[in-house]
Design goal:
- It is a single chain.
- This protein has eleven helices and eleven strands.
- It has two domains: 212 residues, P-loop containing nucleotide triphosphate hydrolases (Rossmann fold), CATH 3.40.50; 46 residues, Alpha-Beta Plaits (2-Layer Sandwich).
- It is 34% helix and 28% strand.
- The mean pLDDT is 94.
Amino acid sequence: MLISVASGKGGTGKTTVATNLAYSLGKRARILDCDVEEPNAHLFLNPVFRDTETVNAEIPKVNMELCTLCRKCAAICRFRAINVVGKTVLVFPELCHSCGGCFRVCEPGALTVASRELGQVERGEAGDIAFIKGCLRVGEAMSPPLIKRVRTYEAKDRINIIDAPPGTSCPVISAMKGTDFVLMVTEPTPFGLHDLKLAVGAVKILGIPHGLVINRADMGDDRVREYAREENIPVLMEIPFDRRIAECYSRGGLIAEMVPEWKESFQELYQKIQSQVLV
């Protein structure tokens, strides 16, 4: 099963839910940290990394001896990553999305493949749990290709828990697309509700079953619950604002480990997700 744990905004407890769910499921679980701009699931699970892979993106390199300055490469590029200026062709690697369109339209064959580093994928284990983490190179803006690379390590015989980036932009879609279920973590505040609505809109477009975890559930107001009822979104878990939980989080600990009754709660959460997927 593929479960993407997402949130409309940062700071709702998305990684807390993802890591505790993985810990509670034990060796059946595999966690993939796709929040590549700021991965922090490893702070809670303390994995031992055994392999590191550098991920590159293909970009064009121009051979001006073959180039006819026809401008077809510039015309097809929606991101203006390649442009003809006078009698030369300029490539802007940071803008390139590696779609390959420029290579296809270059009839003289003046473009060859070069590369730029996007980041790294680290693989290891956190006890019995397989752990895969993507880390975007500092200054790099193109995270979806790195997220897609992390997701190549999904295992069909495991419960794959994807810690998605926050928000509703392209990186989030890359972390949610094709999953069996999206577990959205929110909080009962005006900001939480506003960004939850954006996230629900994106998930509905993708047509993926989804449900809610409300963190710090006994604070704020009931508007998140009212919205969930109106949209027929199941609330699968509520986590209270509890001093024990706050202290555990601040120490980089797992709720399901330090407050044992929560391990059963996260196991029940998975059972609820299963029932939603099978509907």
